[in-house]
């Protein structure tokens, strides 16, 4: 594989906002606002390699060949439920994107992800497909979601998260070496409950105000 598998988006604004999001005293509203802001910056990086073509336009001065995105609209796939927090911000930047959802829960006996919902855009084989989930922890749900998207034909995939654990990155690298992972930070490890350390807690609870 030529493409870099892991990209850490270390833009100063991303790092500053992430530090605030990690703080336990940040309110639900504050967390949500920061997540929306940070997702715009992350989206900018993850779409850096979108293909361009040219189109003829007329400015008030003259005709020109101007760059424009090539091919079909990209697909954003949110892994429910926490993925929706990243999705909302990215859609502000790329309002024409097609959107899909994959819902997975963890079977309490086998601890393996079980799908309960899947609805994805058509023609995934012709779209850049960006899978979003703020926390890449064990990697089990990300791997299962990407398995599913490949069954639906997706070929040009990226995985975008806010925080990653080394365990999750390795799991993704083993299962899907062709899918580059973009994250704002690579944390130390997982704890015994599968939480990222130092992390930011449960991303879904923090963005939706649940416990
Ligand atoms: N999911 C979360 O929301 N937080 C973690 O730390 C790990 C998985």
UniProtKB/TrEMBL annotation:
Binding, 5-phospho-alpha-D-ribose 1-diphosphate: 81, 106, 133-141, 202
Keywords attached to this entry: Allosteric enzyme, Glycosyltransferase, GTP-binding, Magnesium, Nucleotide-binding, Transferase
Cofactor binding, note field: Binds 1 Mg(2+) ion per subunit. The magnesium is bound as Mg-PRPP.
Pfam families: UPRTase
Catalytic activity entry: UMP + diphosphate = 5-phospho-alpha-D-ribose 1-diphosphate + uracil
Pathway participation: Pyrimidine metabolism; UMP biosynthesis via salvage pathway; UMP from uracil: step 1/1
PANTHER family: ADENINE PHOSPHORIBOSYLTRANSFERASE, URACIL PHOSPHORIBOSYLTRANSFERASE, CHLOROPLASTIC
Function noted in UniProt: Catalyzes the conversion of uracil and 5-phospho-alpha-D-ribose 1-diphosphate (PRPP) to UMP and diphosphate.
NCBIfam families given in the database record: PRK00129.1 (NF001097), upp (TIGR01091)
Name of this chain's protein: Uracil phosphoribosyltransferase
Native source organism of the sequence: Paracoccus onubensis
């Amino acid at each position: 594989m030529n493409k870099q598998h892991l990209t850490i988006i270390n833009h100063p604004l991303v790092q500053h906002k992430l530090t605030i999001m990690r703080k336990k005293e940040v309110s639900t509203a504050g967390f949500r606002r920061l997540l929306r802001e940070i997702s715009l910056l992350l989206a900018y990086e993850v779409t850096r390699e979108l293909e361009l073509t040219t189109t003829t336009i007329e400015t008030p001065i003259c005709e020109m060949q101007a760059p424009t995105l090539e091919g079909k609209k990209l697909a954003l796939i949110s892994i429910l439920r926490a993925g929706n927090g990243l999705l909302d911000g990215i859609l502000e930047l790329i309002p024409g994107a097609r959107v899909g959802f994959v819902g997975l829960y963890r079977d309490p006996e086998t601890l393996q992800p079980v799908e309960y919902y899947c609805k994805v855009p058509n023609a995934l084989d012709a779209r850049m497909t960006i899978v979003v989930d703020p926390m890449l922890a064990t990697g089990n749900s990300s791997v299962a979601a990407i398995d599913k998207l490949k069954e639906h034909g997706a070929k040009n995939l990226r995985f975008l998260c806010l925080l990653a654990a080394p365990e999750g990155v390795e799991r993704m690298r083993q299962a899907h070496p062709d899918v580059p992972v973009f994250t704002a930070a690579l944390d130390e490890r997982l704890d015994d409950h599968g939480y990222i350390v130092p992390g930011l807690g449960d991303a879904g609870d923090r963005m939706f105000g649940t416990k």
